Amino acid sequence: QVQLVESGGGLVQPGGSLRLSCAASRSISSFVAMGWYRQAPGKQRELVAAMIGDGRTNYADFVKGRFTISRDNAKNTVYLQMNSLKPEDTAVYSCYADRAGRHWGQGTQVTVSS
Fold this sequence. Notes:
The protein has strands spanning 4-7, 10-12, 18-24, 33-39, 46-52, 57-59, 67-72, 77-82, 91-98, 102-104, 108-112. By secondary structure, it is mainly beta. It is globular.
């Protein structure tokens, strides 16, 4: 079983930055992939960013150039650095990890508003 715990969400003004963290209960080097999804009220969940085991990354077009996914294997943590935030980035952000199935964190709220 894999537990994922997100942190770092909150309220930020447009143009601001936040860094989300996703701490795993086991070594993340054993995961096939990790990443972040988000879901805004009344909308479908959408992929934001992903990192596969060899370190390659994939981003949704709407975050390219603004968000960066990274990992710290020593801390078993994946990060999502979010810059130049827009009101439309407001959503619950959830991390996932793929290892013998997909595992999810509980999600963290990000609100971008003035």
